Amino acid sequence: MAKQKKQPRPKAITPKGFRDYFGAEVDERKHMLDQIAAVYHRYGFDALESSAVETVEALGKFLPDVDRPNEGVFAWQEFDEKDNGDWMALRYDLTAPLARVYAQHRNDLPTPYRRYAMGPVWRNEKPGPGRFRQFYQCDADTVGTASMAADAEICAMLADTLETVGIPRGDYLVRVNNRKVMNGVLEVMGVGEGPEREAVLRTIDKFDKVGEAGVRELLGKGRLDASGAYIDGVGLSDEQAEPVIAFLTSKGATADETLTNLRAAVGESAVGAEGIAELEQIADLLAAQGYGPDRIEIDPSVVRGLGYYTGPVFEAELTFEIQDEKGRPRQFGSVAGGGRYDDLVKRFTGQAVPATGISIGVDRLLAALRAKGRMGGKAVGPVVVTVMDKSRLADYQSMVTELRQAGIRAEVYLGNPKNFGNQLKYADKRNSPVAVIAGSDEFDAGKVQIKDLVLGAKIAESATLEEWKERPSQFECDRADMVAKVREIIEASDD
Amino acid sequence: MAKQKKQPRPKAITPKGFRDYFGAEVDERKHMLDQIAAVYHRYGFDALESSAVETVEALGKFLPDVDRPNEGVFAWQEFDEKDNGDWMALRYDLTAPLARVYAQHRNDLPTPYRRYAMGPVWRNEKPGPGRFRQFYQCDADTVGTASMAADAEICAMLADTLETVGIPRGDYLVRVNNRKVMNGVLEVMGVGEGPEREAVLRTIDKFDKVGEAGVRELLGKGRLDASGAYIDGVGLSDEQAEPVIAFLTSKGATADETLTNLRAAVGESAVGAEGIAELEQIADLLAAQGYGPDRIEIDPSVVRGLGYYTGPVFEAELTFEIQDEKGRPRQFGSVAGGGRYDDLVKRFTGQAVPATGISIGVDRLLAALRAKGRMGGKAVGPVVVTVMDKSRLADYQSMVTELRQAGIRAEVYLGNPKNFGNQLKYADKRNSPVAVIAGSDEFDAGKVQIKDLVLGAKIAESATLEEWKERPSQFECDRADMVAKVREIIEASDD
């Protein structure tokens, strides 16, 4: 009889572009989300958790024009005997689900509806280094009011949030612009909807990189870029390009100065004037609450990619330098963005519902704090009660129960106890502050050995016992004093 | 020219079997998850967050034997130009991903590895009332040790967790059984692998419902059930069925008594004796730590559906009664379950890796606390600063800023301020404790009006002002005293 072919073993790997998060990584993100939620909550925003799965129809942006609508999203067809099931997809952001939720539940929700949401979103994109297909977003939006006070509030809340999670004032800037002002500029230039407008917008978005002279070239005949390649220009005359340049360079020393410059840039455009009036309202409200240009400023170079913004747009940038992969200094850049989008709910209801909001890229913000050394310390592990005598397991369990009841994180070593060295290696891998040791001698005498692993590590580092004379790295104490002695060491090493 | 056909509007609905969670629902679940995580952490378990998406190959249980492997899971094929992409799926539990994570990262992880995980899982099942296709699980597992101390620890931790989230001792019971004992019973009966064994196991699982006499009938010729339908029996003789009955009814008044009865039930079976020895070890360890049968007991009727358990199995049951949809009393039942599964990691590595763990059904546990009235109070909303004079928005914003800085949740009304009644209706919908009111008279005099909405609601309820004489429902105070006066009302209504 032929030998039965063996099934190959499955590969133990995450799908491409996905990753796992362990211990301190999970704790640190959770801590940050808790801090952000507390600020949002204090501002009157209510939590919303929508399902991870939406109908492709409701998500909208990626409507299927082919059999498999998986461009940009992870999508699948519901099983149906006639192969006629609905297409479903994982949400790619938290804004599209909010629009669906508001349209669905608007009669039960307060108006305006302030809501926050935090959780993973999924993008079916090509993964790259540090670029994952599942990542966290943390959004706050106000639906149902056209008042600029809602936009000002979002900006103030964003500034408060950044400071709360540990970005000090001076290390960030919330920049505010208005789509209507840009539309006013394009109107003055005579650039209507279409490819020319797209090309101009793409050029404006490059201002940060190529500067005023670069934008001039790109709006005109074109430009030789750093790599030596020639980039075709939009083909505008110098005169036509002038309003764009005036707009991009309109940032003054104060909000008033910036607004005056913008007025000149939009000329007679009604929509431009409307945008400037909105920026002025936001600036006035923020100034009255004490949010000066050290925290929030009007900056006409903010564009924000998403097509659905209809008025104010926001961006939070971290202004400190970090080192890139090659050790060169660079600005950390954007960690949050948002703006006003008055048409998303209308898709469902036919009625315009004004809305504005912000999305924080939590993983980027965590990376920033780690880059600044403000996070990413090794988490302190549990106290490890070692096992010298297997028949005493119940006694060791009683020790950890006592420690836990005193609020101390603790565990019994549950691996093979034969090799005591492995138990201490385990405690080291767990980053344990203390090991508790008791064999039959100790049990008979009513004692335990306490091994101070924090001190042990320090001694190993400085390779001398001299300076630690006062504090023994292992000592015996009465069993009854175990909890108190362990606590002393943990508290001493917290300093 | 023919009128262009309009695109129909998308429907604003969640996909079938999914739902949204609002405000207090999200907060209450988060609070419970935080409480559970704190207990798990104190026991030395580390957080793990694996990706929501896994390869179908790694998930294993639902390997594709057809083109579309979506039986039970939500799955899709990665796009690939040759239509040859990997199948991916949403995780259906947190255990299968743990096995994959441990196999993938085992060289970097401590052994034993204690980990906890909490988050949504997805099941592609027919939705029903109260039965959703996305729900939360909250797991703790110890991988890499065969010691029964790991199983005992999981049971003790489960009892601690239930008490921590608000289920008092006496209202729950952790029941422990062992697959090996059941296998021993089947061995004694001469029932091998196959359909007969499956039928016997299914019958054992019905013991809770049909009792001893019912099981006797179902193991024999069959049984007329309550609806009048005849259920075919397994077809065993009375003599053959006896060991099952002895096993199911072996629960004694104490663990010792139960173990003695079980010994009789498994007779000469070696695997049965092994299972009993394991139960005995668990019972001894728990007794030494003070976990008596009022919290954790050996109960031979616990089966647990999943086929992958290889030793001890656990179930946490809430023992109090609730009312079903028709107002009849019934026991609340199971809220958590788990057991030892020694073969899941082996699928990947070829080497046996013992593991044991527990999964808490968080949504069911929340439902239990709500049924007992221990949760589900309406969340307190923010203080609402109303808008009497639109030109004073900056002043209203300053008021909420002051309140927030004092730690009080507060917001400005941002709807259309024309109809003041709507502002109070909004505050009511938000469950606000206080409304702050200031028009030009108040601004001129440096005053604000404070409206106590909690008291207002109480007066409306009892329809008399008499008993509330001491506490006016609306009063004027100096603008400088606003924060203190608001705080007084919030603190008084907390009582």
From TrEMBL, chains A, B:
It is an enzyme of class 6 (ligase). It is found in: Cytoplasm. It catalyses: tRNA(His) + L-histidine + ATP = L-histidyl-tRNA(His) + AMP + diphosphate + H(+). L-histidine binds at residues 93-95, 123, 137, 141, 304, 308-309. One of its GO terms (biological process) is histidyl-tRNA aminoacylation. Its EC number is 6.1.1.21. Belongs to the class-II aminoacyl-tRNA synthetase family. NCBIfam families: hisS. Homodimer. This is Histidine--tRNA ligase. It comes from Aliiroseovarius pelagivivens.
